[in-house]
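Hey team,

Filing this mostly as a record. A colleague (T.K.) asked me to run one chain through the structure pipeline before their review meeting, and I want the input and output archived in the tracker in case anyone asks later how it was produced. No errors, nothing strange. Just documentation.

Input sequence:
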Amino acid sequence: DENMRSKDPSWVFSFLSEKFFKPCVLHEDYKKNERNIFCLNCFTSICAHCVNLHNSHFLLQVRRYVYHDVVRLEDLDKLFDCLHVQPYTTNKAKVVFLNQRPQTRLIMNNSGVFCHTCDRVIQEPYHFCSFACKIQYLMVYEGSISRYMNTSTGAMSLSIDTYMDELKEIDERQMTPESVLDHGMTSSSSSTSAENLTVVCTASSFKVTKRKRSVRVPVGNCNPRSTDAVPVRVHRRKGLPVRSLLL
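Output structure:
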């Protein structure tokens, strides 16, 4: 049953080993194509443009906090018991780190509270600095994480509808480099970067405000090879009078 996949602990290990925020190979030419969503059914990361391909699947969004992958505590706690994992607050939401972070300074004394897995300094009453540290600890001392899986109906809310807002943030008028080119262009011209094409096409939407004694020049198309001039204002200026020669 597809609904039982979120309760299968196998997704946890795939989730922690996944590399997020890499460009999506299926949407290379799209903006916001970072793979920051994990599909619990497919055990892989996807981008916001792939959401429609994973209809009815369970999805979990990954975010960035101080250059590290984090996930909202509210989202992850619906799937797994995150008790004793130290959370952090960003944008008024509590998040937890996915993996261990490298130690940036030496521990000078034995006072304070340390992560049970990696010895990072944390705050009371927490025992782990990251989600991965808790998983590693449970596997070493208990040999299984199954009993920590959340089997409540609350986990079912992590469906495709949760991430439709991601698609709304993407400009609906966005076009791939191939779609902005004229149909008559050769395939060799399709290697033009998306950034350059965006600059070229913005000229077609440039508007000139009509003023007194101004001339509106027609705008060229979006063809990168077009040599048509961009809109300019031409003001006629009266020159100095010249008298005719006396005969």
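Quick notes for T.K.: The first strand starts at residue 37 and ends at 39. The chain has two domains: 2-168, 175-234.
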